Structure formats: structure tokens, C-alpha cells
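::Encoded backbone::
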Amino acid sequence: MAEGMLAGKTALVTGGASGIGRATCEAFARENARVLVCDVDEAGGKDSVAAIAAAGGEARFLRVDVTVESDVETAVRSVVDSWGRLDCAVNNAGVTGAGGPVGRLSADEWSRVIGINLTGVFLCMTHELRAMQAQGSGAIVNVASGAGVIAVPAMPHYCASKHGVLGLTKTAAVENARSRVRVNAICPGSTDTPTLRATMQASPEVEKLVMRSLPGGRLGLPAEIAEAAVWLCSDRASFVNGESMLVDGGAVAR
């Protein structure tokens, strides 16, 4: 029998082409889950699959735009058609967006970030829950942020979207508590991803602000965030439902 916390399970991960998403795909495969890597970045998504295959895991890539419901529906159906069921889903796809305070942020930028970060999670959960309810089990992890529990000046769209993800997570968790489908969220702190690195390099002031917010003096690693998703999707977290888990090195607690 294959060993691993997720042995025999199937998983779908959105935003799996880089950063936390890629680390999550790799961690799930290492724990012997079969993984569908979903992203709009085809080159990055295929690189994730290649890395998993090189390590002896099983994964496939599908181009998915989480704001397009037909893409999401196809992704869920692909997992079920290929592997018989959908056991785990990590809804990680998201963007930061261009910042600006309330009153100056454009409506278009607000809609774009809310559309990907919140409506995208809603669409993914809609189809994931249908598949999991039909089979009578499953675990969903939504990737929120520390910005889901505290204010983030000049990032109202991002902050609102992540607060919304936590509300959506809790509601779905309660609604499905008797169906053996668990729904949780993780709230990463500042994490060493290509997106954050690029942002800090472009603005020394942002870099100083980020580093001052870290009690431990370092950024989190994508692999450290991925471990929380693995545990929440495993049977070891069988009584954890509706949780919003901070994985931030103590940043929000400071």
C-alpha cells in the first residue's frame, strides 16, 4: 500500500503554476495524491507537472480561468472522469492587483480583483461541492490571507476579497457539516513568491513595510504554506471544519 498522508486521494489545485500553488501541488503529490494542476499560465503549469513527474508523482495540467464557470466545471469533471472522484481541492488562484485607497481605486480594478479572488473561489466551490456531496466525502481548502482578518491600507479590493473568502468558507462549512465534506481556509502571511519578490524589488518602501511586519525577520516559504493545506485535506484533520488557519509566523499576533 502506498504511503503518504493523502495516499489514494485525488486533488485539484488552482493557481498551481507558481508560488504557493506550485508548492501545494508538489506537496500533495509527495504525499501520494494524484493532482490536477490548474492555472491560466500554461508554461508554468506544465513545469509544475514536469517537476512532480520527475519526483515520481502523478499530475496533469489543465488551463483554467477561475472566473469562467465552464472552465471550472470542466476541471472538476476532468478529475472525476480521470480518477473516479475528487477528494481534495485547494482554491489558491488569486491576484493582488494595483493598490489605492478607498475613494481612489478604480471600479474596474475593484471588479477584477474581486472577480478572481472571491467570485473565482465561489465558482470553484460550487462545482467541487457538487462532486463531493455526490460521493459523500471531501475536503476543500481556500487560500485567503492575513489580509482576511486585518485591515490593509491602500488594498481595499484585496482585503475585501480575502475577508469574503473567510465568510464563504465558514458558511459552506456549516452547510456541509453533515455531508462529510469539510471546508477550511488558510491565511498565509508574507510569503517568498515571485509576485511578492517583484513587488518588493519595485518599491523599497514596500519591502521595508513587509519586513517590519515579520516578527521572525523572514518571509514564509511556499512549502510551509503548502504543509497546512496538506494537513487540512488529510484524514488527520477529520474534525477541523470552518477553520481560518493563520500561517504567518506570528505577523497578525504582533
Summary: Residues 79 and 86 are 6 Å apart (CA to CA).
